[in-house]
């Protein structure tokens, strides 16, 4: 069970890296509207480093907890920026809720996602409505837990949660940024979705459309 969960996590990180590389330029353009324009490159570099660290960990026989901790460190180290630090911490917290040798159930995934989102809120200090990735991650965690509780498969729950995150990310266009670098140019961001919420939704959509197993 342990190596299987680790392999699923490794594959998910590769899918995240692929979609973030694909949308790198657009994410940078979104961030340039009211921020410093580095969100695309940061997410692309961070996720690529995380995917590569996951390969190394898997080859060394690591379980899912250790693999996600290594991936999280690599993401923070290589991404730079606020979002890189938050994604790195989130991956480490996510992995920390699993054991290296325990089976990973849908309930455990939903609970670990909730803990990772809570860590992002605690570390970054943003609340829903501040126009950050928290605005996509919070409804994502809620929808995931609600679907798992109804007995949905993890794939199905992920797809529903990714759809919620996408709607929420799009909805951030209506609000002014109050957190992060964008806060000083908050009003300029009205009409443009938050880059971090957008990249979060892109990643979760990529994970759910390719399916787990
Ligand atoms: P930086 O702002 O350091 O250049 P990025 O451009 O990579 O970092 O990331 C910007 C994104 O990070 C924002 O669009 C937002 O979603 C997210 N973000 C910024 N500050 C916070 C925060 N305090 N809490 C949560 N997310 C944040
Ligand atoms: Mg930036
Ligand atoms: Mg920056």
Ligand inventory reads:
adenosine-5'-diphosphate, magnesium ion
Mean pLDDT, all residues: 94
Please tell me the CATH architecture by its name. Answer: Alpha Horseshoe
Order of helices and strands: HHHHHHHHH
> End-to-end distance, in Å?
13 Å
CATH-level-4 superfamily name: DhaL domain
Number of strands: 0
CATH fold category name: Serine Threonine Protein Phosphatase 5, Tetratricopeptide repeat
Number of helices: 9
The computed structural class is mainly alpha
pLDDT < 50 stretches: none
- Work out the radius of gyration: 16 Å
**Oligomeric grouping of the chains:** single chain
Describe the biggest sheet? none
Assign a percent range to the helix content.
over 70%
CATH class identity: Mainly Alpha
Q: What amount of the residues lies in strands? A: under 5%
Please tell me what the overall shape is: globular
User: What's the structural domain tally?
Assistant: 1
């Amino acid at each position: 069970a342990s190596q299987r969960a680790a392999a699923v996590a490794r594959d998910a990180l590769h899918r995240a890296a692929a979609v973030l590389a694909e949308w790198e330029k657009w994410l940078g353009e979104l961030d340039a509207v009211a921020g410093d324009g580095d969100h695309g490159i940061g997410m692309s570099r961070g996720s690529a480093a995380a995917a590569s660290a996951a390969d190394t960990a898997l080859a060394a026989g690591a379980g899912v907890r250790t693999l996600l901790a290594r991936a999280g460190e690599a993401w923070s180290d290589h991404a730079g920026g606020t979002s890189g630090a938050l994604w790195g911490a989130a991956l480490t917290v996510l992995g920390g809720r699993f054991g290296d040798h325990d089976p990973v159930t849908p309930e455990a995934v939903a609970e670990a996602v909730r803990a990772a989102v809570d860590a992002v809120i605690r570390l970054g200090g943003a609340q829903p409505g501040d126009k950050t990735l928290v605005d996509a991650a919070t409804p994502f965690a809620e929808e995931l837990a609600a679907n798992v509780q109804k007995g949905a498969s993890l794939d199905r729950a992920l797809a529903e949660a990714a759809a919620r995150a996408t709607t929420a990310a799009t909805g951030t266009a209506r609000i002014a940024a109050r957190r992060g670098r964008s806060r000083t140019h908050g009003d300029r961001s009205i009409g443009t979705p938050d880059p971090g919420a957008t990249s979060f939704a892109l990643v979760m959509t990529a994970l759910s459309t390719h399916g787990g197993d």
